[in-house]
């Protein structure tokens, strides 16, 4: 069994970060900068270890990396110290995104040095950022704690890989300047809504007259809280929604020949976000031929939908859109054209349609397969 604990990471988020300090560049004496919201003065909150990262402008990777490493047992209740002084960094228990060293045996997690080519593995080839390095070495522990399972449990491993694919890899790629698509063409639109962009906007504005270390550290606290909350949201989503959905879709794929002898029509026993899983599971389960249509009941209208499967997770085009002669038609006109009673609609693009009954939706899918195979 796995579960999300009520007092788990979200309580830590409310209490984190406790302290961020920054040493003066000319001396090893530390200037402690505490946010009143996190400063308690309790002896129980005295930092046991210090985690260093660089001062100055920050990015999503070190903000998230600092947040994640403080969720581990080894670095729980650590103090985050921001400096570029190598002598000061040398004395810290862990160093992220600065120092020019990647050595997990000494908890050094920088990725800027010449010759660094570390990747996550498991089929992923994107060069890691400091966040990716922390996740690679501590991600299983963080997920296992939240699920209250051992690190060797299969569900921990599944989420470890899924969260990297669906959350962490983009942060690594953006920080390392890796384009999402292999093309020299300019993007069709600008997207500044990703987490890395939003963290970046928390840096002090160049027009702000107050460029003090104290204000900079306050901004970094906000960056850690933003990146950390989205990371925890991703863990929660994958544990509470992604994992159960995966199990349901796997069962439905296994039962597809009970629906139609072609094996190209799948019925969802209950509605679930199947698009997140069907491509990955088809590959894992060696599904051939690939599934063309998915049937599911629309809970709002208690009617049935037939949806064409896209050619890939990031494309709108369908493997086999519903027949062109059906598209844009509704109700009786559609039922007459298709020769199937109870039809409700077919979208103008052919990616989805509806029928009053399961039998009607299944007939639409079967007929579509026959028409499109001629």
From TrEMBL:
A Pfam family assignment: MYG1_exonuc
Domain of life of the organism encoding this protein: Eukaryota
One annotated Gene Ontology cellular component of this protein: cytoplasm
UniProt organism field: Gossypium mustelinum (Cotton)
Entry-linked InterPro entries: MYG1_exonuclease
Family affiliation: Belongs to the MYG1 family.
Source species taxonomy: Eukaryota, Viridiplantae, Streptophyta, Embryophyta, Tracheophyta
UniProt name for this protein: Metal-dependent protein hydrolase
């Amino acid at each position: 069994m796995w579960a999300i604990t009520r007092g788990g990471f979200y309580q830590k988020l409310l209490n984190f970060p406790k302290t961020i300090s920054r040493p003066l560049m000319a001396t090893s004496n530390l200037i402690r900068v505490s946010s009143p919201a996190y400063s308690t003065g309790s002896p129980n909150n005295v930092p046991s270890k210090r985690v260093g990262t660089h001062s100055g402008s920050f990015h999503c990777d070190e903000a998230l990396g600092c947040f994640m490493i403080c969720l581990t047992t080894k670095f729980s209740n650590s103090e985050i110290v921001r400096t570029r002084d190598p002598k000061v960094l040398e004395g810290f228990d862990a160093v992220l995104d600065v120092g020019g060293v990647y050595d997990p045996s000494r908890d050094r997690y920088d990725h800027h040095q010449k010759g660094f080519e570390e990747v996550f593995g498991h089929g992923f080839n994107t060069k890691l950022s400091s966040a990716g390095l922390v996740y690679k070495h501590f991600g299983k522990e963080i997920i296992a704690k939240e699920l209250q399972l051992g690190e060797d449990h299969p569900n921990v491993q599944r989420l470890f890989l899924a969260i990297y694919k669906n959350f962490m890899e983009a942060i690594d790629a953006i920080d390392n300047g890796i384009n999402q698509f292999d093309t020299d063409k300019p993007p069709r639109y600008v997207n500044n809504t990703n987490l890395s962009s939003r963290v970046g906007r928390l840096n002090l504005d160049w027009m702000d007259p107050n460029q003090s270390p104290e204000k900079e550290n306050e901004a970094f606290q906000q960056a850690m809280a933003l990146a950390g909350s989205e990371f925890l949201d991703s863990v929660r989503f994958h544990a509470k929604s992604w994992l159960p959905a995966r199990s349901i879709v796997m069962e439905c794929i296994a039962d597809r020949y009970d629906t139609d002898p072609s094996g190209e029509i799948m019925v969802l026993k209950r509605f679930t976000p199947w698009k997140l899983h069907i491509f990955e599971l088809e590959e894992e389960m060696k599904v051939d031929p690939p599934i063309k249509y998915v049937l599911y009941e629309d809970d709002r209208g208690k009617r049935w939908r037939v949806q064409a499967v896209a050619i890939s997770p990031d494309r709108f085009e369908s493997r086999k859109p519903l027949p062109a002669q059906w598209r844009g038609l509704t109700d009786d006109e559609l039922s007459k054209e298709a020769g199937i009673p109870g039809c409700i609609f077919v979208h103008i693009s052919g990616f989805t349609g509806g029928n009053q009954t399961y039998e009607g939706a299944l007939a639409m899918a079967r007929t579509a397969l026959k028409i499109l195979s001629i």
